[in-house]
Amino acid sequence: MIIREASRADYPQLRRIYLESRRESFRWANVDEMTLDDFDKDTSEEQILLAEEYAQVLGFASLYVPDRFIHNLFVHPAAAGNGVGDLLLKRAVAELGTPVTLKCVSENLKALRFYKKRGWKAVVEEGEPDARYWVLVYE
């Protein structure tokens, strides 16, 4: 498996991963409102790293470099549990340097466990009552 910067040619696969992953794991969200175009809108002005194996994109991380912020980390549901997210997270930290931050929806307990297991610390819970998220930091 390789981690590399995404090119525009990768966007069709990245859009599909973003859509399918959110539909699979965002049980609190309205999946009918999710579209393929969300990827382009939600990663605008970000550096995108992807994990690839045998010309198949397995996941991606989008980074907002000026703030050392990992905005998105998504793995295709079929590739989950195979170390893809771990490799993307390590590469993102290497690219951004420390300290680095990210936000994780409070209801996404699986993701929160994933980050905490890798040494991320939950600093503060923010957001509106129906849209809470944790700010996590890695130093």
UniProtKB/TrEMBL annotation:
EC class, as a word, reads transferase
Name the Gene Ontology molecular function terms of this record. acyltransferase activity
Q: SUPFAM superfamilies annotated for this entry? A: Acyl-CoA N-acyltransferases (Nat)
What EC number is given for this enzyme? 2.3.1.-
Looking at the record, the residues that make up the N-acetyltransferase domain are: 1-139
Q: Which InterPro entries match?
A: Acyl_CoA_acyltransferase, Bact_Acetyltransf, GNAT_dom
A family per Pfam:
Acetyltransf_1
UniProt protein name: GNAT family N-acetyltransferase
Q: What keywords would UniProt list here?
A: Acyltransferase, Transferase
